[in-house]
Write a structure and sequence with these properties.
two-stranded parallel sheet, about 290 residues, about 5% helix
Length: about 290
């Protein structure tokens, strides 16, 4: 159970610890409804603490240990949270609009109803995080880690996703049309029935020894074909995928299963198709 602490006691403990050049240890403390706007809590340990309903706008919690913290309904707009550890944290209903979370760890965090619009979430770890009615409007998720996550409930239409890691993630049936997935890692991702028309997957890695799933996936379109140049699709399962007009120049398709795939007008200059299965594939006007 968290021990109640006042704001005065909180800052006194931080001051004393810093004077001794120690990490302020404020774990398992209760400070609900506190006004911590603009406070400097750089690197503090608040693990397992309870700050529900607090106002923490523009706070500095860079590098802080917030594992298991209760931040339900907390105001964290424009907060500095780079490199903070939010593992198993409760952020349900919290407002992190415009917050800087670059490099933060949100593994197993509760993000139900969390507002993350315009947040910087580059390189964050989202493995096993809970999403339900989470707002991700215009969020920067470049190089974020979604590996193993069921991404289907997320609205990523306005998010930046270049370089994101979707290894083993479930994106089946998602409309990813027009997405910029440049250099994204999708090894073993489930893209069955997903639509990636007009999307950019340049230098993305969609390979996996046990075959990624793209059954029925939509990749091709006119007049702006999907960019698959240089993409690693080795041993990928692309059966019946629609790749019409897609640009796969220099792509690695070795060992890929393209049975029944729609490849009409596909650009394959320099592509590696060694040991690929093309039974029933439509290759009319493919180059």
């Amino acid at each position: 159970m968290a021990t109640e602490i006042s704001l005065v006691e909180l800052f006194d403990e931080i001051k004393r610890a810093r004077e001794r050049k120690k990490t302020p240890n404020l774990s398992k403390r209760s400070l609900r409804g506190a006004d911590l706007r603009g406070a400097d809590l750089l690197g503090v340990n608040l693990s397992q603490s309870d700050l529900q309903d607090s106002d923490m706008r523009e706070i500095n919690l860079q590098g802080a240990n917030l594992k298991g913290i209760n931040l339900q309904n907390v105001k964290l707009a424009d907060a500095r949270l780079q490199g903070a550890n939010f593992e198993e944290a409760n952020l349900a209903g919290a407002d992190l609009t415009g917050a800087n979370l670059q490099g933060a760890n949100l593994e197993k965090a509760n993000l139900a109803g969390t507002q993350l619009a315009n947040a910087n979430m580059q390189e964050v770890n989202l493995q096993k995080a809970l999403f339900d009615d989470t707002t991700l409007e215009s969020v920067d998720l470049r190089r974020a880690n979604f590996s193993g996550l069921d991404v289907r409930p997320l609205n990523l239409q306005t998010a930046q996703l270049a370089g994101a890691n979707f290894s083993g993630a479930n994106l089946s049936g998602m409309a990813l049309d027009g997405f910029d997935l440049t250099a994204a890692v999708m090894q073993g991702a489930n893209l069955a029935g997903a639509s990636l028309q007009d999307s950019t997957l340049q230098n993305a890695d969609l390979s996996k020894p046990q075959s990624s799933s793209f059954l029925g996936g939509m990749f091709g379109s006119k007049p702006m074909p999907t960019n698959l140049t240089g993409v690693n699709l080795s041993r990928a399962n692309l059966r019946e995928a629609n790749l019409a007009e897609a640009d796969a120049a220099n792509a690695i398709l070795s060992g890929a299963d393209l049975s029944g795939a729609e490849m009409t007008g596909m650009i394959l200059a320099g592509a590696n198709l060694s040991d690929a299965t093309l039974a029933g594939a439509q290759l009319v006007n493919a180059d």
